[in-house]
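pasting for the record
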Amino acid sequence: MYQTIILAGGLGKRIKKIAKGTPKVLIKIKRKNFLYFLLKSLEFNGIKNIIICTGYGHLAIKNFLKKNKKVFQNLKIYLSYEGSKRLGTAGAIKNAYSFLNKEFILIYGDNLLEINFQKIIKKKKKKKTKTNPKTTKKVRNTKL
């Protein structure tokens, strides 16, 4: 089963005036947080195993998920927290290594794409290409 990593640890410098201290994934659109739409889109596409890599706004994201536990009850969501040290994209993936399956989909937490993930997965299975991240250790991960 494929899983998805959502990168959601950025500072949101370009959207700072609108966000006012809120993590980008928690900015509201039509009274719902952006992360709501992102998670529901993944669920709709049959992806139920999700790792959210957090940094800035980690506690707010964790609280949002706890508050909406029933809404996302069909999803298996893990948080991977990078701590106060900014790790970047590769560091965030490395930090989440203990949760990773052999194959995964990586998406940015501030993008909502109308993609048929099942179609992409089927194409990948036909090509039989491999994903093999190399990392070394587990760091500060939380299962919700």
